[in-house]
Amino acid sequence: MKRVSILxxxxxxxxxxxxxxxxxxxxxxxxSDVKPPGVSAQKLLEQARQRLRDRGELPAExxxxxxxxxTVPGQIAPQPSSFSTYRxxxxxxIAVYVQRFQDLSFQAAIDQEGKVTHAVLGKISxxxxxxxxxxxxxxxxxxxxxxxxxxxxxxxxxxxxxxxISGEIAKPGLYPLLQTGGRVSxxxxxxxxxxxxxxxxxxxxxxxxxxxxxxxQDIDLYTPLKDGSAFPDLRLQDGxxxxxxxxxxxxVGDYDRSIVARxxxxxxxxxxRILSYARGGLTEVPVPNGSKFVDALAKSGLNPDQANLARxxxxxxxxxQQKAITFEVNGKDALMGNPTQNIALQDNDVIVVGxxxxxxxxxxxxxxxQPFRDVLGFTLFFRELSRSTSSxxxxxxx
Length: 398
Fold this sequence. Notes:
By secondary structure, the protein is α+β, with helices and mostly antiparallel strands.
């Protein structure tokens, strides 16, 4: 009752209800605190609204009761889904300003049902709406009480954003972003960068919209690295899924891995394993991404006078063929500056030093007829080989 009295007083003060109409339609409890039996204050307010509509001073009723979730003609519905616009959801905080009516201005968080609640306007559903759509919906709610109101709505505090990243990435999983508007490149960096097999030309962003539709958009991060152009300006939203596809073997020729290796979008450190008699078995050497054979050799600490560098093998796991492939390298020529022998390294490469040693490892790989299921199986093979074969590290292994 008190709320209705305040509303009618506001209408009268701001000249929206002519005084004669206000006096004839104002409930008796405002004038004498005595209400006629059987007549509610809400009904009297609706009668006053109807009189204004009949006179053409109030727009025709098009907005349903704001407490209702039934969609009727005139109600704002979400527009077709798009990657380029931000859509409101639970825990977003909005600020609403109604010109000349401070009591109707408010700031509120969207609840888990996608609605905001106001003492006068009731509950207003904003789930899945853009900022402009939400502003129009609030304006419609305010227009139930004010003719042609001026309403401004803004996003005061965006909701927390969590995205999932999978595929050819060093550390797949769920990642929170500090604020909305995070970029794909920043998530890749947080997840440790892509693997050697990742294709940055077609990074996929998958988004589920409030109407249940799922859309996917390809993002090219390789071209900006190649020609120095700006990265795509796609803003991530809560629930997005980023998928790093594997590089198609048929399209490797036009993909410069060295450009990618020097960027922050790939795994920054490679783990290279060196198997040699001089080092007493299998040891791990971390090198920066983009390193070549000589870089790992220099960091390994091998003494060229003690190690036989004339014949070296770089053994690599081929995920497509699911088997180990071998590159023979002349270490001395590589150290002397021969670029054909100084090959680029990839993560989890194994460098085998020593003529006889290379022969034994090659023989062991040929005997091992089962394909490797993944890079873990490839790595375990060399670990077990160095532990279990005692004769492998005999003096003739050089």
